[in-house]
Specification:
With 125 residues, the protein is an alpha/beta fold. It has helices at 7-15, 22-29, 39-50, 60-66, 76-83, 92-104, and strands at residues 2-5, 34-38, 70-72, 107-110, 122-124.
């Protein structure tokens, strides 16, 4: 399975794995699955850290790499797809994750109910 993690799932996987349901935890560590973290999620988490809403370790991205999570950069196809999504969710970070999951044919792992309104493959975290 090819998975794309929502930002809160990235945080939980790296720092608070017990927040994830058991099936999700199993899928994230199963070497048969490919797990992606969007550069948008890193941007969002580091922005939240910069305004004091969140604390991350200095080596947060190294922790993600140690978990064998792969970086998914944003490209033009993602940006165009995001701009064409129906206005079900106003958060630009989440809209980009939905677009990336659609363009790249990835299962989006989230608990965000607004994201769940989009027609993309989902896995509840």
């Amino acid at each position: 399975m090819r998975l794309l993690l929502d930002s809160h799932v990235v945080l939980w996987a790296a720092s608070f794995p017990d927040e994830l349901n058991p099936r999700c935890r199993e899928l994230l560590v199963d070497g048969a699955n490919t797990v992606y973290v969007s550069s948008v999620s890193i941007w969002e988490l580091r922005l939240k850290e910069s305004i004091g809403k969140l604390r991350l370790t200095a080596d947060f991205e190294s922790v993600l790499a140690s978990l064998r999570f792969l970086e998914l950069p944003v490209n033009w196809a993602h940006a165009l797809r995001s701009a064409r999504l129906p206005p079900l969710h106003q958060d630009p970070f989440d809209r980009m994750l939905v677009a990336q999951s659609l363009v790249e044919d990835l299962v989006l792992v989230t608990r965000d109910r607004k994201i769940q309104r989009y027609d993309c493959a989902l896995l509840r975290a």
